[in-house]
Design brief:
heterodimer, A: about 170 residues, mainly alpha, 8 helices, B: about 75% helix
Chain lengths: ~170, ~270
Amino acid sequence: MSSPEKEFLEKIEKHKGVVFKISKMYMDNKDDQNDLYQEIIYQAWKSYGDFQKRSDFSTWLYRTALNTAIVFLRSEKRRSFIQNQNVDGLSARQEPYNDTDDMNMKRMYEAIHQLSPIDKALIFFFLEGFSGKEIAVQLGITEINTRVKLKRAKEKLKEIISRQETGSN
Amino acid sequence: MELENFKELWNKDTGQESPEISLEKQKEIHSPLQMLKVNMQTEFWLMIVTLPLLLTSFPFASKDSNIKTISLFVTILTVAIIVYFYSRFLKLYKLLQKNSINTNYDLFNLKTQLLISKEIYISYYISYIPLGFLLSLIQINFHFDMEYNLAIFGISVLITLLLIAFIIRYWMYYMYGRYIDDVVRLVDELNGIEVSSRSEKKKTWFERSQRFFMNKMGIKGNILNTIIWFVSMYFFIILFLTFVLLIIIIVGAKLNFLDVGSLQRALNKLN
């Protein structure tokens, strides 16, 4: 194994959990999540040579991951490219849960799946604790625009959650 | 459940169920630009194989050496056009690097690349208009004096124009346009430009067959689907135009607009 490859794999190992969480935010089934995860790793490896160490590896990786996820083409078996759709949450919700956290986590991802790809990116940064200014830098839009968009994305998410709760009651 | 609970849940999720890391390229197509590249590559080979065959087989049946020479010239010109435009596209594709300055920059970069590819593609088909014009002239041996020759010339030019309009409107959309539209929408959304909501359209036969073949064979399935539709389009267009011309001739002869004898002589003169 070459030295850059080894270095890259070591760095990726520390962040693979977050990368997989991004895959789970963007894709609603296991196969697509795995495909997206692999695609992110491949794209990151392909552009690793361009990584100038001007920013943190994690920040660069998250950006690469989101850029890949935003334009990701689903497998034709499950194709629904960049469009909002209702996840197959209804059947999933009927499964018995032993753990409240697991159930809430599933609901959280189900709600996020219903957002647009750009809103998902905003919510990701929000959940990772990025400030408005940092999100603006990552997305390449103004801070004001970021704050407005993030506020709208959160409102949409709240609306989806309340719809979920009304539906499950 | 509140949004603040989401943060708590998010932090609890370790994502440790992630699959094994692999640096290998996946066999399926997952990027719009790659999809465009595969489609363009397939179309390039289809054009290289079929177009010279079509351009040479009909005129070369003629005994006139002038027609043979001009047809050969047109064929060489056509192949040169195909190679030129395809190499332009490949050059553009190679230029795309993951600079990853920020999401907006990367998406805008991708959008620009895709839109330039689209323009190159349109120019490529538009460049066939003068060729079609030239071929129509060859068909009538550059003589307008004979009865119906002008009509034959006009119809040939019209057919070329209709074909190009059809290719730009439909073929381009299903092969490339729909992927480009999605990226354009994303860039617009990110930059605060009003994006109309996507209406759920019924899947076309092209999309259904593409899905079917890609399910079975992945990238090869996509290539096979393109070949099947490309060849079918040739047959469909030839059959459709033959049918339309037959109707015109039959109705024209019945209503005495056309003199079948003169038309026969004009057609005989063609080759």
